[in-house]
Amino acid sequence: MPAWTALYYDDPIEIVGGKGNRVVDASGKTYLDFFAGILTNMIGYDVPEVREAVERQLATGVVHTSTVYLLRGQVELAEKIAKLSGIENAKVFFTNSGTEANETALLLATYARRSDQVLAMRQSYHGRSFGTVGVTGNRAWKNSSLSPLNVHFLHGADRHLTRFRGLSDAAYIEACAEDLHHVLSTVVGGDVAALIAEPIQGVGGFTMAPDGLFAAYKEILDAEGVLFISDEVQTGWGRTGSAFFGIHNHGVTPDMMTFAKGLGNGFAVGGVVAGGELMDGLHAVGLSTFGGNPLSMAAANATLDYVLDHDLQANAARTGSAIIDGLREAASRLPIVGDVRGRGLMFAVELVDPATGGPSPALAGRFMEETRKAGLLAGKGGLHGNVLRMAPPLTLTPGEAAEGLGIIVNALETVNAEVVSS
Ligand SMILES: Cc1ncc(COP(=O)(O)O)c(C=O)c1O
After folding, report:
1. pLDDT tens digits along 5-24
2. For ligand 1, what atom is nearest to the CA of residue 270?
3. Are residues 278 and 401 part of one domain?
4. Is residue 9 included in any domain, yes or no?
5. Residue 409 is part of which domain span?
6. Separation of 127 CA from ligand 1 center, angstroms?
């Protein structure tokens, strides 16, 4: 295994079982899962509706046919996603991952616009292939500067910089919009293909632009015909509570959305939804051998139906705000907490060294070990590895939300006490 596939915890956890929103490790210890396999086990573990849909498909004896034969599950899922997207005359192409989904969107945009120039956001993460590394603005995840694309990076999720600190939302949006105008009138050579952006930056530590920033960007981009790709790999399917797709929080309907992670509740599925003309624009034949295979389509159709039938977006709003409010209350008395942010069931706590105010990855490591001991799985991220990222399954109950919040606050208090007494 490569050295760069980093494991969490001093003594790594092997998960061997799961039910509801909890998992069990190889030693028999149970954890409330607040990271859900990096936001992917979206409706928890061992969900009968998903298991039975997959078992029905397995029982047919067919796990693969390829897209040269009709795949009913793809058509059904594409119709649902097209409708939910709000994109006019939408079409959907299925892939196996978020990386491939973003590659497809970038191909569509650069082809349609006959340009290799793309705009992306600082601190972003879009995948691990050449093209997606090219549009990634997070040095810790950027292995190469080689890129098939010509990329310029924009502001929008960096309000912590001294020059932006203290600005109101409106003033910050104005500063970012002015910068976009400046980029478009200075450093680009001819037409720009697209802007690709995460509505909430996942790997970046759940940093987010104020609502309305992407509407301001879209207005400027529309005037030049530049396409807008919203990377919904982490923010889709109601997770933010206030919208079904993260970008809808900005009142924007993008030209394309990419998705993956939670849709298959653990089965590999990703894809792009785009306007029909844009999607059909490629002149050559294309396919993804495994993309949209019958098993992942069975899982994804069952998962999406479950999310909609149980209105899990509303549950994310309710349980998420209870947790975020609780974290904010705790933060007000804990000097190690530099920031609490989030939306719905996607929330983060940034840890700082109280003496310097600087990022403290060491304290984040301590928090991880404390929550592990207490039986809760959390994630880490951010530019400096000091941001605790949490995104439980959308099926989280109010009781589990309270239990998880209690464990997190206790762990923060323990780590804070260690710092204060040292
Ligand atoms: C916002 C975003 N886009 C794209 C990706 C890449 O997805 P995958 O790992 O499925 O290729 C990720 C993965 O973490 C992501 O968070």
Report:
1. 889 999 999 999 999 999 99
2. 10
3. no
4. no
5. 16-46+311-421
6. 5
